[in-house]
Amino acid sequence: MLLEAMYHVPRDKWAYAYDAKTIHLRVRTKRDDVDCVVALTGDKYNWQDTSYDIMMDKAASDDMFDYWEAAVRPKYKRLSYTFRVSKGNESVYLLDNGIRTEYPAPPNHYYEFPYIHQIDLFQVPNWAKDAVFYQIMTERFANGDPSNDPEGTEPWGGTPKLDNFFGGDLQGVLDHLDDLQELGINAVYFTPLFVSPSNHKYDIMDYKRVAPHFGDNELLKTVVEECHFRGIRVMLDAVFNHCSDKFPPFQDVLEKGEYSVYKDWFHINSFPAEIVDGIPTYDTFGFFGNMPKFNTANHEVKTYLLEVAEYWIKEIKVDGWRLDVANEVDHHFWRDFRKVVKAANPEAYIVGEVWSDSLTWLLGDQFDSVMNYPFSGTVLEFFNGGMDGITFGHRIGALLMRYPQQTNEVVFNLLGSHDTPRLLTVVGEDKRRLKLAVVFLFTFMGTPCIYYGDEIGLSGHEDPDCRKCMEWNEASQDRELYDFYRMMIALRKHNKALREGRFRILQACENDPCIVYERADDVIHFTVWMNNSPVPRILSHPMETDDWQDALTGEPVAPEAGMMHISLDPYGYRILSRHLG
């Protein structure tokens, strides 16, 4: 056994309280290097009467490591533990002070989880586990009130540009809530709605007022109320990293320079605040001079922005915030942000925009979730033929091991957004590949999100082409694709195992693009079979019971002599299920 590959620390994603009675333990070993891992657990003050051994499950693997996992319910909310790692007749013990070959007398040098404190629990909103989000760019969704169109508004459905307007507004959203409900949506994510000179609204001038060509604060309140009446949650976009250069405090800095009372609201490197050879003399989002960066460590800035966050939660009753450019804002600010938001609504959902490993923000003191772009990148690369099944399985396993389980259950999974090319375009306009990716999205752990229009076949390359107007003429929509989306949403919503059940790759091989995986809880067991190749395939996997059926049609599907054989068309899939107990 390769001892150097073995790893555990008694914190973060390796040892954490899942709920008030349960501690999750994880340990890492070299891939395919050990036979089993056993957690030896007990209470350090009464080991004799509380100790018991737990055989750990191999929860995931990547290209280098296996990850073992176990849930422990200690009698007294505290835990001492070690790991026995075995291969054949050889065993070693992982301890807080190193690896030993002799059995260590408990609890000396054992790892410790000192106590499950209720106040320290990382609790995520339960409703987010059941949510199916729909992302809306209001300017491009529907024009319900032409009277508030900005000057120069172009006819609906024209070519999107970086700076043009088509008149979409909140009344348009209100007019189409029945359509969202029919699709099965139960949560909406709005890109920014506040006063801003741009069509995208990520350069905000007034954080406390809805943009007039979208409507007003009262109309947003009506939209939220109508959404709630239909069982639809509402999440807004918080742009707290930067603002517009037309934001009044920054205008004051431009006018008064170092004598401005707002100079410390921003990161001014030299006065006057201006752009020299294309580079601003103040910090910005990227190098965009029209988006000056806030100094969120400044008390006045923090007070202003936290009041904004609290206002929309308390007064308009929104259900959460998506945090733009979240990784470029200081952690102290986000810790205070969480306190304010959760005090206003303990069930508010906080999603950060971070495009890489985000564990730093997901330890219970900042975000509930992040936009899971590593997930979308992995899924789209696989279903575009960029890797074989075993590589995909390893990448997915690594993603699952990035975060604690409660985060995995509500991590914001997406296949496209306003910042990426359209899903249909990414898969080369091949609906079969698109469907495979969407099936995986809705049968995987996490909170799925649909970008408006993907469900009816909107295409588009990178910004601004990915921000086309929604197509409302059914004759111009792909209704077969719409029905597919509605079917997958319904399957997920009606089966808790697809939202909270365990995930395992059952079959994935080198140089083979096909996969079989499972989702299961104590009630129902799903297996998903995918032929990610351009030729027909028959996939086979051992299955002893004969009570399987097609999860979408109800047709019985029986194995032969303990082997299930599933015939699949090119880029085809099949979902099987069986009820337990």
From TrEMBL:
Q: Does the keyword Nuclease apply?
A: no
Q: Where is the Glycosyl hydrolase family 13 catalytic domain?
A: 135-492
Protein's GO biological process: carbohydrate metabolic process
Alphabetized SMART domains for the sequence: Aamy
InterPro entries per UniProt: GH, GH13_cat_dom, Glyco_hydro_13_lg-like_dom, Glyco_hydro_b, Ig-like_fold, Malt_amylase-like_C, O16G_dom_2
Q: What are the alphabetically sorted keywords of the record?
A: Glycosidase, Hydrolase
* Single GO MF annotation: hydrolase activity, hydrolyzing O-glycosyl compounds
Specify whether Hydrolase is a keyword of the entry: yes
Q: What's the family?
A: Belongs to the glycosyl hydrolase 13 family.
Listed name of the protein: Cyclomaltodextrinase
Species the sequence originates in: Paenibacillus graminis
